[in-house]
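Example record

One chain of 434 residues, shown exactly as stored in the release files.
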Amino acid sequence: MAGKKRKEPQQQHRIPLDADDASIVSSKKRSRAPKPHQSESKLVSSDLSSKILKEALKQQREILEEEAQLEKPSVFSSITVDKLNEGEEKEEEDIDGFDGFSETQSQFDGWEEEILEEDEKVLAAFLSEKAGPQPTLADLIIKRIKEKDAMVSSEERPLPKMDNSVIELYKGVGKLLSRYTTGKIPKAFKHIPALELWEDVLYLAEPEKWSPNAMYQATRIFSSNLGVKKVQRFYSLVLLPRVREDIQKNKRLHFALYQTLKKALYKPAAFFKGILLPLCQSGTCNLREAVIIGSIIQKVSIPPLHSSAALMKLAEMDYCGTTSYFIKLFLDKKYALPYRVLDAVVAHFMKFLEDTRIMPVIWHQSLLAFVQRYKNELTKEDKGNLERLIQYQKHHLVTPEIRRELKNSRNRGEKDDDLIVAVLFPKKARKILE
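Predicted structure tokens for this chain:
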């Protein structure tokens, strides 16, 4: 047909008749490069062989030194004061790859707009005037040393009875950490959690003079390697006084210290027992401290069991103005709280039934948050008590909302059907209850 091209027959490779078998086989083989073992082996140059021998001897020497160090019982034998400043070869590589916090993020001040002078003045009326200064690690160690030895009572900062090399070592560590910004931490410092007298050794390093970045690294190491009780002591005696001092001095918190508090929540029980509860028990927690530490509680995910225990402790302790702020934060997390915790919160609010003081706005807001979240889990008796409370403690904006939430809710143990009957058919519901 026109318009179609005929396919040309493919040319077939034909083998000449006079070709022998050997030539046929050789024609089918491809030309390949000779393999390395088939080619002539080249000798290694004398310069390269000497370098290899030197590297092997160096590695063998390092292995022997490590084995010798492991055989020695003391953790201080392999570390001297001179090694602290030798550089990267003598220090262990940091786990976090910590590169420091930039100066553009040196201060945390996102909470500044939330604080009003009027609120601070109102909450100041609930602060305890009899509360003394918060104890630090240095105060406790100095007191312990003076009790054991009356001869050192005249010294401002006495030294514990330890080996002179250990004292010099950790004094050098303290000087390094006082100017630390980024990089690796000395090995001697990483051994502190494994020591029996870790508090005395930590006292030698003078933690009150550490830089904010050093405090972050110290918190990371201690929270990972110490038990809950020991970490709690580190938080309450070292970290908390440092955070409060920085807020009081600068009216804000350094960004590295803020990240340190977030890192401290790695162990929630130690955080609550070592930072939150001592802060509220001191009776001197102001609004700035509450907002800064509260923002960490608000942002970080915390196990419900730890939060329930902390909320119950806050409800049972003596009231401080900022306690209501922390209670509201835990209530806003919307945990499924046990009835025991709910009863403790109700008892906390009922303490103010006959209080003559004018309660701050945050107290009314915390009560509103409690009623909104857990109104259906309260007993009829609890709701009656809260009704009497809001008749005495009133706020022109918040109290009507509390009353409305209490009215439109079911009691503990009731079902949704009972609530519908009570709202739509109040007379029928009354007869059923009678």
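Notes: Confidence is low (pLDDT under 50) at residues 72-95, 109-113.
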